[in-house]
Amino acid sequence: MKFRYFFISALGGGVVAALAVVWLTEREQPADYITTGTSENELYWSESVIPTSPLPPLPTATLDLRPAARRATPAVVHVDARVTGRDRATVKALFGREEATGALGGEGSGVIYSADGYIITNYHVVQAADRIVVTTADRRRYAAEIVGTEPKSDLAVLKIDARDLPYLESADSDLAEPGQWVLAVGSPLGLTSTVTAGIVSAKGRNLSILRELDAIESFIQTDAAVNPGNSGGPLVDAEGRLLGINTAIASRTGRFQGYSFAIPINLVRRIADDIITYGSYRRALLGVEISTLTAADIERLGLRNRSEGVLVEAVLPGGAAAVGGLQRNDLIITVDGRDIRDLPELTEIIGRARPGDQLLLTVVRENKTRQLRINLQPAGN
């Protein structure tokens, strides 16, 4: 009897305790914990409540780069540049290759720019070459001629006698952002039609690899693997659109070490279109000597709340800047509403402009902002 009593008492106590817990739970449930009628298990937290357990993981997005690779690969070519009848030491220094037959030259990549046979590559791929052979993705070989070059941006345009060639739609490189997926396509180390993937790491990089003082360097930095032979090939976005021209790597070994650099397509297109139309790039000039703002400049000029921009170091007499009222020690902070953080951004904008274009500059002078309209002049004036 005593055992039965204890059992019944324990059972009754458990039932009472369970009912009490349920009752207290319902009373103490926070008002911000909301159940919806859409699903038995669908629960939402309002913004004012921090859940004590992790939220369900977000769905994993699946990125498939195969369509982009299929679009890009047919428009990429292998460029074989040979040299005959030139000083051997000079040519070998330029190209770094001497074959057993005694021929001198270099090789790289290119991208078909139009269906009628115009091809874009790097200037350093074809520099000094007098015989160029282009091989398409379907292994057709064409003799190519140089239409024009722009050494100050390391670009060249070739032409082959062909029609109905596949070419790529251009992206807007201004909209490229760090973290977006990209593909590099080309012929690294002689391996044709090679595709590598990575992300945009940064924009507006200046590597000082072009020797001219007025060179245009504003590279897209990526971590897509690029090696010798990739030069001149395309950088494409995840939709297979042309985003840039692969040009350089940062390396201590001569091979890829995690950083590659491409000329943005908005600049490439501006230069290539001029070369195709006129035979050369018609460059616009601002008529100034400029540099990225430094801490020493900020202290010297007593600038307040300014840490970025491009400083005018000198204004050339009679140039576009002088006529428009730009002065030494002016700090350029925007051009046509676009923020200017450093030198590469400004040189790219000027490089994409045409002679006669008018730019609206916002400058800081003696800690006061003002706007100036500058009518760009053609190079040579």
From TrEMBL:
UniProt KW Protease keyword: yes
Domain PDZ: 287-367
A Pfam family reported for this protein in Swiss-Prot or TrEMBL: PDZ_2
UniProt keyword list: Hydrolase, Protease
GO terms of molecular function: serine-type endopeptidase activity
A GO biological process held by the record: proteolysis
InterPro entries, A to Z: Chloro_Bact_Ser_Proteases, PDZ, PDZ_sf, Peptidase_S1_PA, Peptidase_S1C
Residue stretches in coiled coil: none
Signal peptide: none
The protein's name in its UniProt record: S1-C subfamily serine protease
Organism: Neolewinella aquimaris
